[in-house]
Amino acid sequence: MKPLVVFMITLLTALMLEAIPFPEEFLWFRPEWALLVILYWVIALPFRVGVGLAWILGLMVDLLQGGIIGQHSLTYVIISYTCALFYQRLRMYHRWQQGVFVAVLVSINQLVDFWIDHYLGYAEPTLLIFMPAVITGLLWPWSFIILRSVRRIYSIR
């Protein structure tokens, strides 16, 4: 398979994972799959994957979840830009340290999403808005290993 096709399959897989329906009581425990995958690719290929792709993926998540168009795009651009600024430092960290950094970035994502939703009257204040960040940070080491294996097997550069 061509590397570009495999790369696109990883993004489509992340979008499919975002589309999996969750029971109402477990919605706070849903990881941010699309953001997790885009963060990996920004760290792994910072000169090929960046803010533009994060913006497009954010628009796709907005369309998929039926939210306000541009809400996820805004946060994904902020997060991917921050990650691109620190990609060299992130590569030197251990996986668990990267997971903590990813959890902080996803917390920023959750906070901006909450502010927009609260402003529009869709959300009430709760600390559970940070639970997806914790779950995503815990999933980072395994996601990193899987995506790195895919990148090496298919020579994605």
From TrEMBL:
The keyword Repeat does not apply. GO terms for biological process: regulation of cell shape. It comes from the Bacteria. One of its GO terms (cellular component) is plasma membrane. Keywords: Cell inner membrane, Cell membrane, Cell shape, Membrane, Transmembrane, Transmembrane helix. The chain crosses the membrane at residues 35-57, 99-116, 128-147. InterPro entries: Cell_shape_determining_MreD, MreD_proteobac. Belongs to the MreD family. This is Rod shape-determining protein MreD. The lineage of its organism: Bacteria, Pseudomonadati, Pseudomonadota, Gammaproteobacteria, Oceanospirillales.
